[in-house]
Amino acid sequence: MRQIKLRSGEEYRDEIELELEPFELGGERYLPVPDKVPAELTITKASTGTVLELGFTARLHGPCYRCLGDAVLEVPISAREYQANNPEGEEELRTPYLTDDNLDLTAWSRDTVALALPDKILCRAECAGLCPTCGKNLNDEPHEHEDQQSDSRWSALEALREKL
User: N or C end of the chain: smaller count of CB under 10 Å?
Assistant: First the structure.
C-alpha cells in the first residue's frame, strides 16, 4: 500500500490474478476451477481513510448437498473494505486484511467467497436427492417405496395421531 501514493479523492485500479484455495463446507471439499482467476482491485483514498474494493468470479466444483453428484457453482464476488486513517481502537474502522501496509488478498478472497456461498450447494435447483429408504439417486431413478411396517413401539403414537 505504501507504493501507491494517493491523495484524497484519487483512485487506483489494477487487474490482478488471485489464487483461490479449496473450501471445506459442511464436511465436503469444494475446489475452485481454475484456481487462479482474474480480479479487479480498486483503492480509493477518502479524506478519513481508504476504501478497498475487490471484484472477481469464483467457480467451485464439489458434491451436491442432496444427491452427492457433481455440482458446479459460479459465484460473482464484489467486496468492499474500509481502513480509517486513525482507527484508534475502533474495530469497525479497521480491515483485518491490511497489516503493516500489506493487503492480504488470499484471506480476503477466501472470506468473501465463503460469505457469498448459498446454504446448500446443489447440482441443480430441482435436485430430488437420494431415496431415504434405498439410497438411490432420485434424479436418475424416480421411485417410491411401499409403506413399510412401522415399529410396534410407535403404535401408541400412531393411535393418538388417528384420533386427532
Answer: C
Burial of 139 (0-12, 13-18, 19+ CB in 10 A): middle
- For 111, phi then psi, to 5°, come to -65, -40
CA distance 152 to 149: 9
17 contacts 37 by C-beta, under 8 angstroms: yes
Task: Pull the grid cell for residue 122.
Answer: 446443489
| Closest of 41, 37, 35, 36 to residue 15, by C-alpha | 41
pLDDT digits (tens, 9 = 90+) for 10-38: 888 999 999 999 988 888 899 999 989 99
Cβ contact 62:33 at 8 Å? no
Q: Residue 4: what pLDDT?
A: 67
Angstrom distance (rounded) from CA 13 to CA 42: 4
Predicted structure pTM score: 0.74
- The residues spanned by each domain of the chain are 11-116, 128-164
Q: Is 107 helix (H, G, I), strand (E, B) or coil?
A: helix
- Name the one residue in this structure whose C-alpha cell is 464436511: 27
